[in-house]
Amino acid sequence: EPEVTQTPSHQVTQMGQEVILRCVPISNHLYFYWYRQILGQKVEFLVSFYNNEISEKSEIFDDQFSVERPDGSNFTLKIRSTKLEDSAMYFCASSVQYSNQPQHFGDGTRLSIL
Amino acid sequence: EDQVTQSPEALRLQEGESSSLNCSYTVSGLRGLFWYRQDPGKGPEFLFTLYSAGEEKEKERLKATLTKKESFLHITAPKPEDSATYLCAVQANDYKLSFGAGTTVTVRA
Predict the structure, then answer these.
(1) How confident is the model at residue B98 (pLDDT cuts 50, 70, 90)?
(2) Which residue of A has its CA nearest to B31?
């Protein structure tokens, strides 16, 4: 069964450094998403992406964050200058359509900011 | 703002002891309610989508139902492998899923 894959599984970074999290969505999916889950808290929406542009973003997704689909298969989340509070699990998801269709999630990247 | 509340926070069951999980929601214009299973250190795994009140979906020992204000996930005769955190999420008139905090189910043999 096709799945969303994320790399790396764990990223440790010094505060203030840039980090790029990578995702390969399911191949025939057109909508892509990033969510995060701080330890012990709810899964929170960050951003959705369709047709090479952001379709929706949350208040969390400020100017430090950016997303890109650099080629036909990868989808990336960049955090420009990491803060301690960026430590979380980051999940990539994809769906065939944006409405009514399930979003399928990867296993996440655990980001630890020191 | 969309609100999703799940109860109980944790549920400990004996193998074979059936139970139900609750997800109550407040959303304007529900497009879909989704149930996911999450194992430790893993991403949410899709289980069901429910679109309208009265709808029911089943998969093995799990059955999800939907009313206008809440959804239930019934676990019938659970096995230890059903131990996981079950997440409920709603989608309204936008792209994002709004998640509840989850119910952690532990099934003892």
Answers:
(1) very high
(2) A100
